[in-house]
């Protein structure tokens, strides 16, 4: 409720028009968000009065319905900003990708908790990846890269259930190689890797059993390096490449490709320690930051409430995340525990990526800040995620 309230005030500041200040005028984002919040509370109440076993039993149904919606949006969806991600329903636009998050978490928890296989089993890993990849692929067809990447965060829920930590390490290495390949010459990078591998071979020459795995890893890294440029040029869109190049410093165009990020950093930095005050932000008031009530809502927090207000908001998110993890850990039901970690993973991904992109730590990929950003679909999706967990937690003395 605290985050929703803060979000509503900042949406109000981002789109405030002194000539049209009415709260009930549905032509303004802040008035719409007010009714979205009321609807979210009703949704939360309905979830709390439903039997907790309902969510476990019907998790495949939820998953199937969201897949149908993801297919439907490709056919009848409305294209906004280059993404065909919304289904128009009167004056409201439904975004199925938001609701796919909670349904995927439910099915993942349902499958893992009902299976006799261990997370080290290849069949278990394969089916879990399939559950994640189907909605991811459909969302990429829209194309909505930001929402699609959210599903990768569920790897942390799988790790909690026994997935090998080596997979996370390999993922981190591949991300590092991807960035380094874009920054440096391929041959130079390969030379460094070969040198490191040779040094390791010298150090472990008495343990020859390490040599073959090391050579396999080195070969895999070299092949990956050569594939980076092809994937970068042929899979990512031009606007996505530009956003990455801006973050890496390969493009310095504050009035063109780097405009969003540059204005975002100006807005946050200009807030100083205590901020300029409510409705006093010049970057906010004069619409210098694009999408300020949605993806860049944190800019309003930084400009009008300053460093102090930003710390309060971040503190609220960290408290929420710690509470979710605590709730997940105290469960006797493996279904609820897995679901709880899925919720924590999705919230953390949105929190880290959204704030990170506004201050230039990660590329701009366009995902909302939970409970703060404007939007009915995202608000209701996060509400459903959280309230299902609360309902399942209320039944923790039993086993689902």
UniProtKB/TrEMBL annotation:
UniProt membrane topology term: Multi-pass membrane protein
Region forming the signal peptide: none
Main location (coarse class): membrane
Subcellular localization: Membrane
Coiled-coil intervals: none
A Gene Ontology term for the protein's cellular component: plasma membrane
InterPro entries the UniProt entry points to: Cell_cycle_FtsW-rel_CS, FtsW/RodA, RodA/MrdB
Top-level lineage group: Bacteria
Gene Ontology biological process terms from the UniProt entry: cell division; cell wall organization; peptidoglycan biosynthetic process; regulation of cell shape
Transmembrane segments: 33-50, 57-76, 124-141, 162-181, 187-204, 211-232, 305-326, 338-365, 371-390
GO MF annotation terms: glycosyltransferase activity; lipid-linked peptidoglycan transporter activity
Keyword terms: Cell membrane, Cell shape, Cell wall biogenesis/degradation, Glycosyltransferase, Membrane, Peptidoglycan synthesis, Transferase, Transmembrane, Transmembrane helix
Protein name per the record: Cell wall polymerase
Organism: Pararcticibacter amylolyticus
